Amino acid sequence: MPNFPTIASPLCPESYSPSFSFCYNLIMIKLTDINSKLLKANYAVRGRIVIRAQELEKQGKKIIYCNIGNPQALKQKSISFIRQILSLLEYPEILDKPETTKLFPADIIERAKIILKKNPNGMGAYTQSEGIPSARQAIADFIKKRDNIPTDINRIMLTDGASKGVQSAFTLLTKNDNDGYMIPIPQYPLYSATIELYGAKQINYFLDEKNNWQLNEAELTRSIETSKKTGINPVAIAVINPGNPTGAVLSKENIEMIIRFAKAHNLSILADEVYQENVYIEGLKFHSFAKVMHEMNEKDVTLFSFHSVSKGFLGECGHRGGYLEVRNMTDEVYAQLIKLQSIGLCSNVGGQIVTGLMAAPPQEGDESYALYIKERGAILNELKEKAEILSKGLNEIEGMETTAVQGAMYAFVKFELPHTQDIKKMTDEEKAKYEASRDSSYCMELLEKTGICVVPGSGFGQAPGTLHFRTTFLPPKDDIKALVKKMKAFHNAYVSALK
What we know:
Blueprint: E1 7-9, E2 12-16, H1 24-27, H2 36-40, H3 48-58, E3 64-65, H4 80-90, H5 98-103, H6 106-118, H7 133-147, E4 156-159, H8 161-173, E5 179-185, H9 189-197, E6 201-206, H10 217-229, E7 233-240, H11 252-264, E8 268-272, H12 289-295, E9 303-308, E10 322-327, H13 331-343, H14 349-359, H15 369-395, E11 400-401, E12 410-415, H16 428-450, E13 452-453, E14 455-456, E15 468-472, H17 477-498
Parallel strand pairs: 3-13, 5-6, 5-7, 7-8, 8-9
Antiparallel strand pairs: 1-2, 4-10, 9-10, 11-12, 12-15, 14-15
Helix pairs in contact: 3-16, 4-6, 7-14, 8-9, 8-13, 15-17, 16-17
């Protein structure tokens, strides 16, 4: 190897070898060089508290992760039906082996063969941009059966989880920098982060905590009128049902009100319905926006509906499967959505397959049916039981309360702390920073002292003057029981120390 001389550069304070070295302080990009929109975007469920939890775990501390809806990372078992078919599709060479009939039910083998016949290029090839037609047809049939309404396969698109579908809708609808999106407070940070990334405007509307986190029409009107006065152009309203982080299930009447509101203000609706299988309270029922809109004969409001294989009872987060269904959109506009999807070629094929299987599970008479029903029931029943343990236990702690968890996988817990500063002298901005620091400090201390990892309410948004944290109830039942006991001891000690 030749010897390159070390020479001095007038641009670099140190000598360097021109072949191998760089003046790093001039060449490496800095924070000031990157997209300011990315810098402003926040995603609380994987923020600094989670980073600290991972550090503590490496040091040997037991961590109860309640920060994110990631079921299988928290010991929820996978559904055999899904994994068996995926196994055969990933390695179809074993389909006709004698040993395969001993390991897999007959209907599983037959289903895998049908999928391969309809998708002959296999798991390693790109599909149509919108997704595998047979999987999209399964979703169309699923929606028709669920809601007893007409469906159109040509308005269904397979996506990498519901998140990518949401981002596609934002890309389609955001025309100008002053375009705004109404999002619930508290909200799932996907929405606030995407709005920031896309350079749009966030329009907050507060959910009614005293009324089981339903939407309030007067609050929606206040929110949209305030935004218009500041020069924002509202283009859509996002609704999460069942709620994240609230766990609320919206009534049919509430959904009807939202649809009427959207029509009155020329808004599209983004219906995040990924928790539709997770309803735990007797007498409550999930109502899809598509069904309610059809019953209202509403044909003027554009609806984007999102679903995912990550939630429900599947918990297949890692397969990143989901779908977007659109209603009340012209062919010309929908073609632009297809073009957007085609820029990324297609969603991942494994996720497409799982989404199709979610929509078309085993039927009675299939050999795999009994096990599927048993596994599904076990997961949903345990989630319901853990939701009851969590909400009952936390409500027994003095200074802490949460509405009964109706659905989804979370509780948004309200707690009270004595003030350590005189808030009467603070501006609204100072109060907001003060409250955010209080719930963040509380959650960090909770992690350090107990190993419980939750997310501060300020990461989702909360009514001024209130403190919350979001917790999942996905960990094993014994961990949830331990969480309640540790939480009570910690909260009492933390409050006493502030007095």
